[in-house]
Amino acid sequence: MNIKKSKLYFCISSAFIVIASIMIALIQFVGIDGTKEQKTFSLIIAITFWVSLVCSQVFFWLVSFNRRKTQTEKNKAKIGLISFFQNKEAKIADLSMIFFAIVVIFLIIFNVDSGFLVTASVALLFLSFFMHCYLNSRNYKFIKNIENKE
To answer: For the whole model, what pTM was predicted?
Structure first.
């Protein structure tokens, strides 16, 4: 697998996370107790969410596999989950994750009864959390290093 494929797979993985986030936001429009159409739509949303989540991880693992195969020196960097502010893009994701975490906590504490606001905030927290993990990851650093060399 070449470097361009790694970059493509990273982008595909990120796109699947965006799709999963959209599915979270769409939850408010369906119900399992509703009409037959609503039940069908809720099943489609659930399946799409889980398939997107699994596909994003598969493509991310493909990038990781290629990185391990290509890199000659051992990478001692921390995993993206526990790394913060590693680059400009990651700073944006980290700050948005912190912001949406505060928003969700605020909504819970003050028992805000707005389905749209709650699901949109949770969807954006989900997206920003995954982007935090992805953009602080060894895989992203690997792709950025290759881009800087070209």
So the answer is: 0.86
